[in-house]
């Protein structure tokens, strides 16, 4: 008996995850962005995110920082983890949350915001928000983009309106008439 076959098996198993780069037998190029096949193997893709009622708070010129808010809905079957943000409105953006500590509202950066599968998270004053540093003071009614970056590196661009007040809360969706 010899140990060679065992060693060979271990070697092959260890090399198995690596795709040989020179194997060009298949002409089908692996397209990473095929819109028809939403890959469930890619967790935390921004593709499943929908943003509604996005707005950027208008603060007077001279105010260095402001914030953006939105309601984020995850239409997919896996949690979406938002890990960063950016906007032309600001030199720098961070994910923040407000919390009350000893009767004082404080805010701090959070590493991520998790939008649960088939769930939603609302970014709103007093809670989670996208902090915008060194803002360019957009005017009331102007639309600016806010880009969210997800854990897999994908991004989604959110169209936000500059406003000094939150958008009015839409009335609850009426229950559709029962078909007879
Ligand atoms: Cu903040």
Could you describe the 3D structure shown?
The protein is mainly beta. It has a domain at 46-162: Immunoglobulin-like, CATH 2.60.40. The protein is built from one helix and ten strands. It has one helix at residues 4-15; strands at residues 49-57, 66-74, 80-86, 90-101, 104-109, 113-115, 120-123, 128-135, 143-150, 155-163. Strands 1, 2, 3, 4, 5, 6, 7, 8, 9 and 10 form a ten-stranded mixed beta sheet that branches. The longest helix has 12 residues, at 4-15. The radius of gyration is 23 Å and the shape is globular. Copper (II) ion is lined by residues 67, 96, 107, 129, 131.
- How do the helices and strands follow one another from N- to C-terminus? HEEEEEEEEEE
Percent range for helical residues? under 10%
Q: Please, what is the average pLDDT? A: 81
Give the overall shape.
Answer: globular
Specify the CATH homologous superfamily of the domain at 46-162: PCu(A)C copper chaperone
The tally of beta strands, per DSSP, is 10
Runs with pLDDT <50, length 5+?
A: 1-41
Into which percentage range does the β-strand content fall? Answer: 35-45%
CATH architecture of the domain at 46-162: Sandwich
Bound molecules: copper (II) ion
CATH class of the domain at 46-162: Mainly Beta
Q: Over all CA atoms, what is the radius of gyration?
A: 23 Å
Structural class: mainly beta
Distance between the ends: 78 Å
Give the helix tally. Answer: 1
The largest pleated sheet is described as: 10 strands, mixed
CATH topology of the domain at 46-162: Immunoglobulin-like
